[in-house]
Design a protein that fits this description.
The structure is a single chain. The protein is mostly helical. The protein is 70% helix and 0% strand. The protein folds into two domains: 94 residues, no CATH class; 132 residues, no CATH class. The protein contains eight helices and no strands. The radius of gyration is 19 Å and the shape is globular. The chain starts with a helix and ends with a helix. The chain binds zinc ion. Zinc ion binds next to loops. Belongs to the peptidase A24 family.
Length: 250
């Protein structure tokens, strides 16, 4: 069963790569065959097997021999891995609406993370469908009020930073992402998610400073850390929250 979930994740990851590419090039997501980004040669099914094709072709296009971005196999592998971890954390109850809800939200977050990393941008066409999905799910589970409170506090927190810094600390995309993540987690889990994101951001930021790759003033796309933190909270949120609130003695 684990293998089936993993392979399913690889295939979905390959689809997410196509979505990320087409969102940027404003091609239709549904129509049109996949093609090489360099030579535009149409790709055969043999070139589209997740991870395997990349390895067989040793990371180069079969037709023009230019390099294929490591993003493609990486996103596929990460999606496969996260799907497996989600299946494990839900004890393989794979037919529940909760499982498929979390799976779908994770796909949205992977798109947001990769797109923000590459282009420093969080797109409305990704945020709004996810926000609608979360709202409908919250209505069906009675989490609606918690979701609204979480959304208002977390996006309000980002909005304050956005206006105080005039957009230097944080982008307006993060304010919208705060709406989505607050809706998904509510306030209690949302704050743990936020802390984890800042913690990861600080570690990576200090790491980049020490190795001299970034200057203090250069910004890191915070949406990446928020998305990764959110996925971790979906997988291990209750454990992390219990541990953290125990620590605080709450
Ligand atoms: Zn090519």
């Amino acid at each position: 069963m684990i293998v089936i979930v993993f392979v399913f994740g690889l295939i979905v990851g390959s689809f997410l790569n196509a979505v990320i590419f087409r969102l940027h090039s404003s091609e239709s997501i549904i129509r049109g065959r996949s093609h090489c980004v360099h030579c535009k040669h149409e790709l055969s099914p043999m070139d589209l097997i997740p991870v395997v094709s990349f390895m067989i072709l040793s990371g180069k296009c079969r037709y023009c021999h230019k390099k294929i971005s490591w993003q493609y196999p990486l996103v596929e592998l990460v999606t496969g891995l996260v799907f497996v971890l989600l299946a494990l954390s839900s004890d393989f109850r794979l037919l529940t609406s909760e499982f498929w809800y979390l799976l779908t939200v994770i796909c949205f977050l992977i798109i947001i993370a990769v797109f923000d990393f590459k282009h420093f941008l969080i797109l409305d066409v990704v945020i709004y469908p996810a926000l609608i999905l979360a709202t409908i799910y919250n209505l069906s589970t009675g989490f609606f009020v918690e979701g609204i409170i979480g959304a208002l506090v977390i996006s309000g927190f980002f909005a304050a930073q956005y206006f105080v810094s005039k957009g230097r600390w944080i982008g307006f995309g993060d304010v919208k992402l705060g709406l989505l993540l607050g809706s998904i987690f509510g306030l209690k889990l949302g704050l743990v998610m936020l802390l984890l994101a800042y913690f990861m951001g600080a570690i990576v930021g200090v790491g980049l400073l020490i190795t001299g790759r970034k200057k203090l003033s250069s910004e890191l796309p915070f949406g990446v850390f928020l998305s990764i933190s959110a996925i971790l909270i979906m997988l291990y949120g209750q454990d992390l929250a219990d541990w953290y609130y125990n620590l605080l003695g709450l």
